[in-house]
Amino acid sequence: MGYYDQDYERNESGGRGTRKGGRGGWFFAGLLGAIIGVLISAFLFPAIGIMNPDSANVTPEQKDQQPAPTVNKTINVDVNTAAEKAVDKVSDAVVGVINFQSGDFFAQQQAQPEGLGSGVVYKKEDGKAYIVTNNHVVEGATKLEVSLKNSKTIPANLIGRDPVMDLAVLTVDADKVSTVAELGDSDGLERAEPVIAIGNPLGFSGTVTMGIVSSKNRTVPRDVDGDGEPDWSAEVIQTDAAINPGNSGGALINLAGQVVGINSMKISETSVEGIGFAIPINSVKPIIAEIEKYGKVVRPYIGIYYRPLSDFPDAYRKKLFNLPDDVNRGLVVRAIQPGGPADKAGLKPEDVIVTINGHKIENALQFKHYLYTKLQPGDEVKFDVYRNGNKMTVTVKLGQSS
Description:
With 402 residues, the chain is an alpha+beta fold. 20% of the residues lie in helices and 34% in strands. It has helices at residues 22-44, 60-64, 79-90, 135-138, 281-294, 314-321, 341-345, 364-374; strands at residues 94-101, 112-125, 128-133, 143-147, 153-162, 167-173, 182-183, 194-199, 207-222, 232-239, 251-253, 258-266, 276-280, 300-301, 304-308, 331-336, 352-356, 359-360, 380-387, 390-397, 399-400. Strands 1-2-3-6-5-4 form a six-stranded antiparallel barrel. The radius of gyration is 36 Å and the shape is elongated.
């Protein structure tokens, strides 16, 4: 509701009326005097009441330089209407993904549905509709199906998946799909910008929840290999739009109806509310393109098994590795894969890697993030290592992950 000015009129009247006598004469006499006074003033001082005193001495050139008058406008945005239009635009492109896994062979049971997630149709080409979802939605599946908005289910084929980024690509018959989602630009998101999550939480298909972007650049540790230790730093969008089991793989959209993220995870502690995460669509695009092309994501490969130096007590660091007192961060090489890039370069077990291409290695998360985001197979990288107390540089030509 805006503010506005009001003009008020005040009408005054006197007594019960006027007499036909003297008071009327006085009135007309006074009126005549006022008119004569105004005419004399206008003749002697023509600018009075017409010209602004502040602008009386302004030259034509100065007048051209005067600032334009300020115009205040109130712009109303109907967020509800925009949200409705955005959801209508995208919702048919958000599907359910059903994960079937093999039953008991000896009991001759058929594959049973083990999980339900969501997916987003992002492309139709050559008779196929392409769907992006999370890797953890399809992991372990022996059969996959996609449920459409009309509750009809159709078979789906797994093209490939990427456990590191938690993404997978499926295809279905394009004739069965009517709507393709538009992929937006996650880099253009702003904090507090409204966003909408669409998916199938707990099997409730087409569920819509709305919130805002809490952070566009949040880093969350993830355990990719299932050993209980974080080994990847996922860069995600944080939102307070409700994301629940079954939302995984669904769309996070803006008010323009563009997909800006793929819903991936939430913090499930009972004391936590309103913290969910989505993979930015600008990070998704190159991954799904590579999965389409190769059936997987090709990443650089070194061929070492390692543990963080911080896992070893202080007393053992000097005793086992003969390290200087100021070296307390890095990676300890525990084993070398025979014939791999590290083996060919001459790295040895119990070498302590402290830098990669001059960048200090603080932990395994930082190391893997640099390796996967800054380097390509075939690149030559320089590792600064300590071997039995002696610092040296080892050059490794990166291989390609299988």
